[in-house]
Amino acid sequence: MSQKPTIGTLGESGSSSGEQSHFITRPVAGSGAADHGAGPGSRLSRRRFLAASAATLALPSLLSSRALGLADVPPPSERISLGIIGCGGMGTGNTQSFLREKGCQIVAACDVDQTHLADLTKLVNTHYGNSGCKAYTHFREVLARRDIDAVVLSVPDHWHAVAAVEAARQKKDIYGEKPLARTIAEQQAIVRAVQQNQRIWQTGSWQRSVPLFRKAAEIIRNGMIGKVTRIEVGLPAGHNDSGKSGQYKTPSAPPPELDYDTWIGPSKMMPYIRARIHKNWRWNYNTGGGQLMDWIGHHCDIAHWGCDLDRSGPSEIEGRGEFPAEDAVWNTCTKYFIELKYPGDIKMVIAGGYPEIRSGVKWIGTDGWVYADRGVFEASNEEWRDYKDLPEELRKVKLYQSNNHQKNFLDCVRSRQPAITPAETAHHSSIPGHLGLISMLVGRKIKWDVATEQIPDDPQATKFLGRAYRPPWTLG
Asked: Which of 45, 126, 332, 353 is the most buried (most CB within 10 A)?
């Protein structure tokens, strides 16, 4: 086992004046900017009113969408306008999902890599058969457009907080990726910003919109395995060379199409190494959190859902792990075993690299057990395996039902009701991973105060709740 890496200290660097000079917003070309009002839902309602008024005046000269064979496609005035921030692998996947939804229109794309930006802009415009999706290289240019209702944030972990907090302040609803943020302090900032600005937030923890996982969680919530005593959460281990560029592990000049300084953003400046960026940013603590944090927002999220722990958390955490050298290109934990104590004498294990803990979630109770993973459902009662959904007579507790994660977000933007994975839920789903990592870094058991969201009487562990920001970047 090698030396444990130091991943940062509590606090943020930079000043508001420095941030302002760094974020000078260039004119937004082709934005069609117009102030559609402030407050939850008002942009959409005003736009619909104006569109309806214009349509009434021009009625004699217009063909209806039904006459054109487009009865199931809302007119542009009724569609939610989306901006895509982050155009890499996850950004492309999220874009493709939203392109399938007729209730929205993607009108902007943003990335600091010109190749990714061009590819995604072309994808969108080809789909719509026009040139309505505009390309931007700075996320604040997208947020400055008053005609954009919501944004899809598909950026690396170290960018989650800065982009999300600013998007909330600019009154955009947000579809953001998991984990909620790179640190607990950043997650707390996102939750505050979303609440204060009354934004709709959907986390990309899409497993909650899969019937198999909902069935498993409802079985647990309805007491069908008795009292839950143990939960096993199995996650991946090691490093997966997602971008197939792991062989390029020596410093070099950044490619001309990449604005590397902005890409590093609030993180510590490090030499450009191809194996540390696109997709592989996950494997260095400067920008990501390894397999533990990459997956905690999926399976731990489902574990919490089954036990009604979406607003709770562990009180004691003890983890052990194996780390590469601190200065390795990929220095995130490669193997880990974390034990957590929850209310009600529930013990949870989160593990990666231990075959006895299977990938997915297993709830063990006094009267049986249930195991769920992607495409896999097993249980102590074989009858449960045949249920597509839990029979109605067994559903004393009925969980939030969504069968389409992106559509659920769009529906909630319209209704102003919470999405299936709001920011508060994503925050609590990721906290066990953050605390497990902190326990491994300090090399001992730590405690967690769920009410205050602090590590009591432990200055050494507390410093890992946040990270220092590279000037002039700040959350403000």
From this structure: 332
Q: How confident is the model at residue 74 (pLDDT cuts 50, 70, 90)?
A: confident
Cross-strand partners of 363: 231, 370
**What's the whole-number mean pLDDT along residues 449-475?**
96
70, amino acid identity: L
Tokens coding 206 = 């899409």
219-277 per-position pLDDT tens digit: 999 999 999 999 999 999 999 997 778 889 999 999 999 999 999 999 999 999 999 99
43 vs 34: CA distance, rounded Å = 10
Q: Starting at the edge strand that comes first in sequence, how are the strands of the sheet with 80-85 ordered?
A: 134-136, 104-110, 80-85, 150-153, 173-176, 201-203
Take residue 436 and report the two structure tokens written for it: 């497990």
At residue 174, the 3 state secondary structure works out as strand
The superfamily in CATH containing domain 208-400+426-457 is Dihydrodipicolinate Reductase; domain 2 (3.30.360.10)
Domain residue ranges in the chain: 208-400+426-457
Strand partners, 361: 233, 372
- For residue 413, pLDDT over 50 is answered with yes
d(CA 151, CA 94) in angstroms, rounded, equals 11
> CA angle at residue 376 from 280 to 337, to 5 degrees?
50
DSSP 3-state percent helix, strand, coil across the chain (nearest 5):
35, 15, 45
For residues 280 and 330, the answer to whether their CB atoms sit within 8 Å is: yes
The DSSP-derived string for 187-253 is HHHHHHHHHHTT--EEES-GGGGSHHHHHHHHHHHTTTT-SEEEEEEEE--S---TTS-TT--S--P
**Which tokens go with 376?**
């896999």
Token pair listed for 58: 């021009």
Pairwise CA distance, residues 135 & 28, whole Å:
10
Pair 296, 433: CB distance under 8 Å: yes
pLDDT given at position 476:
66
Distance from C-alpha of 103 to C-alpha of 137, rounded to nearest angstrom: 26
Contact 428, 309 (CB under 8 A): yes
**Residue 271: partners with Cβ closer than 8 Å, 6 or more residues away:** 251
CA–CA distance, 447 with 435 (Å, rounded to integer): 9
Instruction: Give the CA diameter of the chain.
Output: 77
Is the CB of residue 401 less than 8 Å from the CB of residue 286? no
pTM, rounded to two decimals = 0.86
What is the per-residue pLDDT for 68? 39
How many CB atoms neighbour CB 345 within 10 A?
10
Q: Kindly calculate the radius of gyration of the chain based on its CA atoms and give it in whole angstroms.
A: 23
pLDDT of residue 71: 55
